[in-house]
């Protein structure tokens, strides 16, 4: 009898313990949501442009050679992870827009040699925020929001695998993130501003590369991508007004 009584107590205790764990987990998630609801808006840089429609959709492999990150004051720290996240967002936009037919990240510049182009990123990201506003945010139990302005500096190098042609492009960008619990209502749209910023970066990069003759469609009678690029680059000069 004592054993049966003990088993009944154990069966009763287990669901209660599980219920308490679930309640604690729910409380932690609610606190995290209360403290970390954000909404991002795109900045004015880079400006929105409408690049020309691509004539050739190559396969691109991309990597991060060096990327620095810092939030608030202090020295920049190397963060290949953050560089990869941003570069992947830009490359996925390229693929969605039809600029490339495929994109693939490779670590440490270990390109396979099977893609049409190799793309290498060097850059940085700095998050600027007010310590005073963060203190006020805490003292008011997060009722007063604070902002984080992210400043991005991208330096890309593009290499044509077939011809060896080398192209470079640089873009500076920024967006602003608001942090406040009531922004949970805007959760479905929270990241749209950041993605819009990365789209503008992608358009600016493609525009700069295409003006240099990259992503040129091989022309009839041209045996190398360099020849095709020169002719396509010359054609792009018609887009500039005569002085």
Count of beta strands = 7
Strand count, sense and closure of the main sheet?
A: 7 strands, mixed
Q: Give the number of domains.
A: 1
Q: Whole-number average pLDDT?
A: 81
What coarse outline follows from CA principal-axis ratios? Answer: elongated
Helix content: 25-40%
Amino- and carboxy-terminal Cα gap? 102 Å
Tell me the number of helical segments per DSSP (H or I, 4 or more residues long). 5
Taking all Cα atoms into account, the compactness measure Rg is 25 Å
Topology as a string of helices (H) and strands (E): HEEEHEEHEEHH
Percent of residues in beta strands? 25-35%
Layout of secondary structure:
Blueprint: H1 2-36, E1 38-42, E2 59-71, E3 77-78, H2 80-97, E4 102-105, E5 117-129, H3 131-139, E6 146-160, E7 166-179, H4 192-211, H5 225-236
Parallel strand pairs: 2-4, 2-5
Antiparallel strand pairs: 1-7, 2-3, 5-6, 6-7
Helix pairs in contact: 2-4
Keywords, separated by commas or semicolons:
243 residues; 5 helices; 39% helix; single chain; seven-stranded mixed β-sheet; alpha/beta
């Amino acid at each position: 009898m004592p054993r049966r009584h003990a088993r009944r107590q154990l069966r009763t205790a287990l669901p209660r313990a599980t219920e308490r764990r679930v309640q604690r987990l729910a409380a932690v998630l609610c606190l995290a949501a209360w403290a970390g609801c954000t909404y991002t808006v795109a900045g004015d840089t880079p400006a929105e442009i409408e690049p020309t429609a691509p004539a050739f959709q190559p396969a691109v492999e991309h990597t991060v050679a060096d990327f620095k990150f810092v939030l608030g004051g202090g020295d920049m720290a190397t963060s290949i992870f953050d560089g990869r996240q941003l570069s992947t967002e830009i490359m996925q936009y390229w693929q969605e827009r039809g600029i490339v037919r495929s994109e693939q990240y490779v670590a440490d510049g270990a390109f396979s040699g099977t893609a049409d182009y190799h793309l290498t990123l060097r850059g940085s990201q700095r998050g600027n925020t007010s310590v005073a506003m963060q203190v006020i945010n805490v003292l008011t139990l997060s009722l007063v929001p604070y902002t984080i302005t992210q400043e991005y500096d991208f330096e890309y190098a593009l290499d044509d695998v077939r011809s060896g042609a080398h192209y470079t492009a640089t873009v500076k960008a920024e967006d602003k993130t608001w942090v406040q619990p009531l922004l949970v209502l805007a959760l479905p749209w929270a990241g749209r501003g950041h993605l819009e910023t990365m789209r503008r970066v992608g358009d600016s990069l493609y525009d700069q590369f295409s003006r240099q003759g990259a992503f040129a469609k091989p022309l009839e009678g041209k045996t190398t991508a360099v020849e095709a690029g020169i002719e396509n680059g010359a054609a792009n000069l018609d887009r500039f007004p005569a002085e």
